[in-house]
Amino acid sequence: MISRPMRAFLAALALAPGAVSASGPNEAVRAYRAAREPEILAELMELVAIPNLASEEGDIRRNAAHLVRMLARRGISGRLLEAPPGPPAVYGELQVAGASRTVVFYAHYDGQPVVPEQWTTPPFEPRLRSGAIEAGGRLLEAAALVPPFDPEWRLYGRSASDDKSPIVAMLTALDALAAAGVTPSVNLKFFFEGEEEAGSPNLARQLGAHARLLAADLWLFCDGPVHQSGRQQVVFGVRGVVGLELTLYGPLRPLHSGHYGNWAPNPAAELAGLLAAMRDGEGRILIDGFYDSVRPLSPAVRRALDGVPDADADLRRSFALGRSEANGRLAERILAPALNLRGLEAGEVGERAKNAIPTIARASIDFRLVPDQSPAEVRRLTEEHLRRRGYVVVADEPDGAVRRRHPRLVRMQWEQGYPALWTDPGLPVSRAVLAAVEEAIGEPVVQVPSLGGSLPLHQFHESLDAPLIVVPMVNHDNNQHAPDENLRLGNLWRGIEVYARLMARLGELWTRP
Amino acid sequence: MISRPMRAFLAALALAPGAVSASGPNEAVRAYRAAREPEILAELMELVAIPNLASEEGDIRRNAAHLVRMLARRGISGRLLEAPPGPPAVYGELQVAGASRTVVFYAHYDGQPVVPEQWTTPPFEPRLRSGAIEAGGRLLEAAALVPPFDPEWRLYGRSASDDKSPIVAMLTALDALAAAGVTPSVNLKFFFEGEEEAGSPNLARQLGAHARLLAADLWLFCDGPVHQSGRQQVVFGVRGVVGLELTLYGPLRPLHSGHYGNWAPNPAAELAGLLAAMRDGEGRILIDGFYDSVRPLSPAVRRALDGVPDADADLRRSFALGRSEANGRLAERILAPALNLRGLEAGEVGERAKNAIPTIARASIDFRLVPDQSPAEVRRLTEEHLRRRGYVVVADEPDGAVRRRHPRLVRMQWEQGYPALWTDPGLPVSRAVLAAVEEAIGEPVVQVPSLGGSLPLHQFHESLDAPLIVVPMVNHDNNQHAPDENLRLGNLWRGIEVYARLMARLGELWTRP
Fold it and tell me: Which of chain B's ends, N or C, has fewer CB atoms near its CB within 10 Å?
């Protein structure tokens, strides 16, 4: 919900659309935006004001219907791609006479869950601030909104950055090109997913059902933040992931540690030893054969890595870290597979600690995968590693009889997971995207061979067999997935220019030798 | 509270006291008991019915006053040894003409906290059952109480076994000796502590203030259970203990494990490695020098150990264990020092797990000590062990600046702890106690060189400089410290005979060469 005075003020400021004169296509887009900041922001705020948890059917369909209206305003006939019981994806396309390539712009319109009490202002009442809350940014009232808006202003609200502003940026880019009389150089398709933050459980089915509709030469993912340095980045991949819950067993009931300790196996001590045999304190994975199928970094990846700015010292300071694992560079470390211990649990600590041998000890792990590893292979190698140490591996909760039978017993519960997906930065399509983005921003772009994080991009790749490249736009300190999510306005302005340039120039740059 | 019909019935059954004829002192005590089972049980039930949490001043003083009345009934002038703000100890003595040795009988009258909803019948409404609840024991109504009572019957109630029944056993032993015309062979002192289950915070002060009053040649501790096999045991020591809370630090806030994992140190992984470097999965402590000051087992201890029944296979079955650590015998394993991991905590596991690097990882440890280790030495060795691995050890919560400064940082919070106390089973006093108990039970006693558990017996030893020996009487499956605490009646009957025999014969056996 946008407050009434704010809505009135923005409406009053919005100019009637019309052609804008400027010296070149970049300048034309910038001038278009500069003349319509209140209007653009109003459109984003209207969208952010609609609650968007994927599992709330009424809310999520209000978003979808709103997106269809936003497409219609651009003359694009939007449609819903249904995949019950999940939310629909919103689809639209713009065929360009003479264009030989087709590019899909991807974004998602659903958002992470919210706990309203944890927010400074309500998550679905978008508000502008003079800066980030952490930096003392203060609320801006309607009367303060005199264009041009300060690019350091922030818009607060769930999905302001993740991932509604890219949708507004794409559609505004279309408007700006139209206003400047520039025809896109590629056929455009828009695919707005409605369940990304819920783990995309119905996506593969949705993509499979509409494979012909969604056929394209490139998927551009407009999601995620720019580099921590604030510089524009293009991301060529994501790591895969597979989760594991690991449980070791001690006595059936907690036993007095004095009377039985040193005799009844302590599952917490056993767990510590087992984990120490799987990963060392510097991140090296000790599971036999774990690195065997890791594809060596390509020359293009190595070159890209050299150009990634080094923010390591600042990050260490900000996180209060006295070191980094293996003294490595962040940009390079996230191109390796990783075993992350996300949780440990056994007995009790601190004031609740009892002098008892715990009955079970649990560890929660996420493995991050790189090409050419697969979740199935990681599972096989890990289980073999433990079997070689004398463990019997079970998937289900073992009863007393099973626990009695096996001196060493471990329960391993695997998530399904998915593999990594990397597009080589040296491919012609990759070079074309880089060139278009650099034309838009007028400086070298940060090439990120792969995010450290994971997205199920392999689903798109498997279903649609097209290269995928991520072109993010929002500020890195956007509190993604957390309370007080926000968008820095300057990032929206730049996003419009970047997406407009991609639409305008990709076809030409791509076909060039 | 005892139910009205039950009270009336027991009162009606109770015989008038009088001399009992029997063929010998053992038989006299047994016959005395057999003739007065309802009366003895009624006295215990009256005592158990008084709530006895040390911190509830009104309740705990009602217990103390009741004990003074119980002593008075035997012609002993009881007094309260005050140690504000703690509960009083109840003291009484019986000087015997011609006796040269003085023995203190120790028990405690306070009990563990209760959660009444977890009890099958209310903890302070003592009830009789035909057996253990776990074995299908059913409630006995007043009409069923026809002597002689089945020794397998159980009395349910908080402190029925830990530690009120030993008090009734001691005082009944006195009655039985008096009835048989047998004079104790030693001077007797009774010391009933009121805060044992609360950790005895005021005990050292209390003992120090009354050191002359409490002077003795032997302290007999009438607390704890008999051997798991059901056989009578005499226990010559306890292990010491010292607790440790150990904390490792990761990033100031949880970091995305994809974006920062493998680079930001993972404190949970570091903790696993650190614990694995302190103790292996077989209980061996890897801290440099940890075993250096461990006193070798004496010949008498080794002999005692040979006589301890082996219940290991049954216990493994009952606890659903597939092995025991180092394949060791329980009786021997608890004579070694131990590092028990009582808890682990970092991030989250299972459904609550997030793909994040935890900010801290915690372990809670209890060390069990044997002669001649001290808590101070264990602390020094453990901290040195970690310092050699590059850790800076701090006692307080480190702020961001401290965390930034040290690549390896560990917080160690130590409890005060206390050392072990072992009385050699080969000493003359030890042999006298063993001989008296064996005379009472007519079979070899189980000699336990030390409990695996810990009791602050060193406080008595330091304050009073007398040997200490534990002569327990209650059943091992008494649910001590848990809901449905209970006493097997047969154990009370045997306890009376054992304590009577100690009173009657210790002086004579002790002075024998």
Answer: C
Confirm or reject contact between A310 and chain B (CB < 8 A): no
Residues of A in contact with B265 (CB under 8 A): 281, 321-325
**Cα separation, B218 vs A255, whole angstroms:** 32
> B245 and A349: CB-CB below 8 Å?
yes
Strand pairing report for A446-448 and A233-235: parallel
- What angle do the packed helices A57-73 and A165-180 form, to 10 degrees? 10
Nearest CA-CA distance, residue A39 and chain B, Å: 35
Distance of CA A354 to the CA centre of its chain: 42
Taking the model in full, what pTM does it have?
0.83
> Which A residues in the span 263-302 are in contact with B, Cβ-Cβ below 8 Å?
263-266, 268-273, 275-277, 279-281, 283
Q: In this predicted model, what pLDDT tens digit does every residue of B371-387 receive, in sequence order?
A: 999 999 999 999 999 99
Sheet of B79-83, strands arranged across: B79-83, B86-94, B187-193, B102-108, B218-221, B468-470, B233-235, B446-448
Please say whether the dihedral angle defined by the alpha carbons of residues A215, A217, A220 and A221, taken in this order, is positive or negative.
positive
Instruction: Give the torsion sign (CA, B82, B83, B85, B88).
Output: negative
Q: Whose structure tokens read 């470097």?
A: B277
**Distance from B196 to chain A by nearest Cα, in Å?**
16
Write out chain B residues lying below 8 Å of A452, CB-based: 256, 258-262
A438 residue type, one letter: E
Distances (CA, A) of B489 to A68, B33, B500: 81, 12, 17
Asked if the model's pLDDT at residue B169 lies above 70, the reply is: yes
Count of residues in chain B: 513
Residue of A nearest to B256 (CA): A453
Select from A273, A350, A355 the Cβ nearest to the Cβ of B366.
A355
User: Given CB atoms, is B358 within the 8 Å cutoff of chain A?
Assistant: yes
d(CA A331, CA A449): 9
What spatial distance separates the first Cα and last Cα of chain A, rounded to whole Å? 50
Q: Who's near B69: CB < 8 A, 6+ residues apart?
A: none
Partner A contacted by B136 (CB < 8 A) = no
Question: Is A415 in the B-facing interface, judged by CB distances under 8 Å?
Answer: no
Identity at A253, one-letter amino acid code: R
Pairing of strands A218-221, A468-470: parallel
Cis amide bond preceding B166, omega within 30 = no
Chain segment B254-301, per-residue pLDDT in tens? 999 999 999 999 999 999 999 999 999 899 999 999 999 999 999 999
Handedness of CA A378, A380, A383, A385 (dihedral sign): negative
CB contact under 8 A, B257 and A363: no
Q: Which residue has the higher pLDDT, B363 or B352?
A: B363
* Out of B317, B346, B452, closest to residue A404 by CB: B317
Q: Does A321 touch chain B (CB under 8 A)?
A: yes
CA dist A334 and A339 (Å) reads 11
Residue B80 parent element (H or E)? strand B79-83
Interchain contact, A320 vs B251, CB within 8 Å: yes
Identify which of B239, B321, B362 has the shortest CB distance to residue A404: B321
A486-488, strands of its sheet edge to edge: A127-129, A154-156, A486-488
DSSP state of A162: I
CA geometry: angle at A111 spanning A109 and A113, to 5°? 160
- Which residues sit opposite B356 in a β-bridge? B256
| A254 in contact with B, Cβ within 8 Å | no
Sequence-distant (≥ 6) Cβ neighbours of residue A33 within 8 angstroms = A40, A172, A176, A493, A496, A497
- CA distance, residue A65 to nearest chain B CA (Å): 32
Q: Tell me, what amino acid is at A490?
A: G
pLDDT at res. A143 = 86
Stretches where chain A sits below pLDDT 70 are 1-23, 512-513
